[in-house]
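Researcher: Next entry in the queue.
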Amino acid sequence: MDNTILIAVVSMGAIGVFFAGFLAFASKKFAVEEDPRIGAILEVLPGANCGGCGYPGCSNYAAAVVAGEVECNGCPVGGPDVGSKVAKIMGIKDADISSEKMVAKVLCGGDSGKCENKYRYAGVEDCAAAARMAGGGPKGCQYGCMGYGSCAKVCPADAITITDGGIAVVDEEKCIGCKKCVAACPKNIIKMVPYGKEAHVLCSSPEPGKVVRKVCKAGCIACKKCEKACKFDAIYVENNLAVIDYDKCTGCMECVKACPVKCIKGDLEKVTVAV
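Model: Structure for this entry, 275 residues:
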């Protein structure tokens, strides 16, 4: 009996040593050399693993850069500074990867004082769940922010708060541009805008002005006064909604001054162009 046990133990040990040796040999024989640039890029990335670049994590993004599948400035968290470092590792000139920081903006100004609810919602505190209710949710304007905070819940930078009036607001200084809030919003009213631009149309309704006014006091009525006031052709009305061309916008704030319903917001103290 003792010999049987001994033989079994020795046999299992021998088998284990054989397979260990085989695996060690195979790992060296079939090993794939990793491009050292991947590790170098990982060292300069912020390590947020937010997915804002379109890849599951920083390591996947680094590998994609080296493979030529994505630009060097694809990290929204690191911005231009990290983009420049990645470009240096890849041997690309800074001039070829210049980009402007983009931040999220909730394009709705219809808080509870300006846009009342159609009915009382007592369901799950989640925008996606509320949007599946009758009329696209309880909000008087079906295109307006419902304020249940789905965007705030997914923000890894704690950059979104819900105001007392039930509107989501993004802190541009905290926003890392990961776009998770954009994907989470069932109303598609969170857009990426250039950081530092002051004028924004806080309305997303494509309805005619008379329809908008029935449900929201802060909605765009497509009067085109902003369009006429802008000397730089930077704002125009399309599908009953004022739209700003940020590439042309100079920050003169004439559209903000001209808007009769005050749905175009901007800091008048930060006028950047004399008119």
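Model: The chain is about 35% helix and 10% strand.
Researcher: Noted, moving on.
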